[in-house]
Design goal:
- The protein has two domains: 1-30, no CATH class; 34-117 and 158-250, Vaccinia Virus protein VP39 (Rossmann fold, 3-Layer(aba) Sandwich), CATH 3.40.50.150.
- 29% of the residues lie in helices and 22% in strands.
- The protein contains nine helices and ten strands.
- The N and C termini lie far apart (55 Å).
């Protein structure tokens, strides 16, 4: 502990409150496979908990990376079928290791998702979680201290096409974290979205990747598709400029 905190009790109280909140969040995951995740991997915990009254039976994890979010979702909804989508092969072995406890109820699909079927270059970052089909902009490099390390050619398929080809079960919940490419994925998923009750989407309030959609674009698209913004996830700082957040959109119940 810094000695300066002893002379500034307000700072000390705030730090103790933050530490207590972190402990409470991890306590809710005690005894589950998600208990070993880091703080950065449980950012959407509270949003998923909002779905507990009507647990999703089928979940699509779009931008699955190495499986940390799938692990979190399965820990909260162990009976759910998860269809995960991750185009970077370098992540597949770790995904398989993390999800080995759920054989048959977690499946990984390797194409990237987008609005049309084609082949594209994935911009692979030195922090691979931040890789995207969009080129990194100067704002993103500055904000997240990441840089492009290379490119990889990947097939891109609309989700609607992949669902039909693979005869996938329709989702109750779609989670999207594809580094600025969320709107393109949604544009290729309009038929699939009709079955969903919830969309959990990472949204940005500044352009970190060249040409990326920002929060107003995502909000307008999902509103037109019949969803309403329900809640933002953990991590927004009071009185600070908005950067990124997880946002939960719900389809209002029929009256």
């Amino acid at each position: 502990m810094r000695l300066s905190l002893l002379y500034n009790p307000i700072d000390l109280i705030e730090r103790l409150a933050i530490a207590a909140q972190r402990r409470r969040r991890f306590r809710r995951l005690r005894g589950t496979p998600a208990a070993g995740l880091s703080l950065g991997h449980i950012g959407s915990l509270e949003l998923l908990e909002l779905l507990r009254p009507a647990p999703p039976a089928v979940i699509y994890d779009i931008g699955a990376n190495v499986g940390t979010w799938t692990c979190l979702a399965k820990s909260l909804f162990p009976a759910a079928q998860v269809e995960a989508f991750e185009p970077l092969e370098q992540h597949h072995a770790e995904f398989a290791r993390r999800t080995a406890a759920w054989p048959g109820t977690v499946r990984l699909h390797s194409p990237a998702l987008g609005a049309m079927e084609h082949t594209a270059q994935m911009h692979v970052m030195d922090f691979s979680d931040a890789s995207s089909l969009l080129a990194l902009g100067s704002e993103g490099a500055r904000e997240f201290n990441i840089h492009e390390a290379g490119e990889k050619t990947v097939p891109v398929v609309p989700l609607d096409v992949l669902v039909a080809r693979a005869n996938l079960p329709p989702p109750d919940l779609l989670k999207l974290d594809v580094q600025g490419y969320e709107l393109e994925v949604l544009r290729g998923a309009t038929a699939t979205l009709r079955h969903a009750r919830a969309v959990l989407c990472e949204v940005s309030f500044r352009e970190f990747y060249t040409g990326q959609a920002q929060f107003p674009d995502i909000l307008a698209f999902l509103t037109a598709e019949g969803f309403a913004l329900h809640a933002f996830g953990h991590g927004l700082d009071l009185g600070q400029p908005l950067v990124q957040a997880d946002a939960l959109f719900l389809r209002p119940p029929l009256r």
